[in-house]
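input
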Amino acid sequence: MAGNTKKNKGKGDSILQQEDILQAVVLADSFNVRFAPMTSERPRALFPLVNCPLIDYTLEFLVSAGVQEIFVFCCSHADQLKKHIWASKWNHKNSHCIITPIVSEDCHSVGDALREIERKSMIRSHFVLVSGDLVSNMLLKDLIEQHKARFKVDKSAVITLVFKQAYPGHRTRSEEDDIVVATDTTHRILSYQKMHGKMKARFPLNLFEDNREMILRYDLMHSHISICSPRVTELFVDNFDYQNMSDLIRGILINEEIEGNKLYMHVIEEEYAARVTDLPMYDSISKDVIRRWAHPLVPENLTAEGEGYKLGRHNVYLASDVTLERGSILQEDVIIGQGSTIGTNTIISQSVIGKNCVIGENVILENTYIWDNVRIESNCKMSMVVLCDRVRLMDSVIIQPGCVLSYGVKVGPSITLPSGTLLTLYPPSHGESDQEDKVDDRHMNRTNRQLGDVPVDKDVVGEEGEGYVWQPPLDPDDDDGQRQQLLGLNVSVEDETKGSSEESEDEGQEDFVSISPPPDDTRLFYNEVIDSMQRTIEENVKLENLILEVNSSKYAYNVSMRELVQLVVKAVLEMPHLKVTEPLQASQLLPRLTTLVHKLLPVFRNYIKNVESQLDCLNALECSGVPLY
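output
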């Protein structure tokens, strides 16, 4: 009996230990087109960031945090990701972590991926959810314990989101991270709004009524590190319209009173956390790694055995077998990969050069990212440029900021590429899907004969060049509001065509808030103003009471003063028409309006006090369409 008890106890301990294993899910697919055409041959998770695959930063972060089981969700280029994982140091027998690739080529969003993970019943307890483009050195252990302790007391605390303190304009705060977050004193998230360039944030009145203290923060960026309960994957299964984490956050906040789920946040200040979401972020995070802000995630700690870097002055890193010809100058923030050669009188600053690259004489490289096996001949000059594998630049090529040359492109000789040029080795085609990676997989199956069917534009790539201009597709499924950003340029690829229309639209909204027909809350406010005015006229109520009723309705429906003035004027113009069977002519309307305005004069004086309110009044008169003459 004692032996059986001991045996059963050992079995129970084994099950308990299995449940206590800390798990993580890495989404190695980005489900957008922000990095095309660079994703034609390689997924974003395998992009070299300071000559180390991007996903290695993510895996190193999770393993260092004590995660024991990691599921890497692969969609496009799954074979490359699986091969990289199997060959990684974490797949050795002495590794303390198990990494399992999950392949599903039918998924088109984060929501689809998490629904697939739930279908396969892989999540047994609380887990860490991150993207495969994350670079972070934060310690997760204490945060995970806090999350579990909170969940033990309150089962509705389904997720803890990690934010990094970063003020507007911070180098690692992208357009996507322009958010306003409202929390209570327990760090429970009450409101989460993406600004998308807007200058004002709106909050429902009940937030202030239900919370005696509330904190509003505009100094945060979402690191996309989430500590999740098993309930999170169930929420994606229950709600098929959830396509990304923004949908989940929005759904939890909207349905909090019905479903009872709650969001909490954790803010880091000194630790590092950022995602490579676009080319400017690729540039910023690369420089942070070179400057050692993400320590211990630094070049010498992330390279394979035998490829270690030596750190010199001014953050200059040199791998083994690097050849520097006489007169070459490495100024600052430079890393040169194994087997590369730098020619005579070449000047390099704030740039990354990959493995087995050949840089000719009298070349100037500034803020340039060069991947593996690239050849640059003499007298070339470039700044804020990305050159993918096997690119060749012939003599005297000048590349302006914001250009991307995809795999195998040849340019030159003696040609200048204008700012924002995107080149790919494959000719443009039509009717293809917009999803990143899957878009360009088809290109790889084309034969050289097919490539020759479309003539190369020699005016763009030069007489000996090979390549085609790539036009960025629109990404209608990108709910984050993030367009493809070009390296070194402050505008997106769509700004030239959309900027003027958006600016005029914003100006119109600022000058006049539409009052016909009004939005739902504004319409309710307008109806109450009509009722209050009608009751004041019919029952001879004091005008002071009318003003009090209008002010009360203003706060109840969160109406701005500009909207109030316009809607009060509209209501006055509407009053003479309320109890008539036929439209009034101008000769009939004017006397009635004169009498009504005279009676309500104190109301006008109360709200129309300055030039701005007078303009609002005139706007309402102009848009009402009422014939007064």
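quick obs: The CA atoms of residues 554 and 561 lie 8 Å apart.
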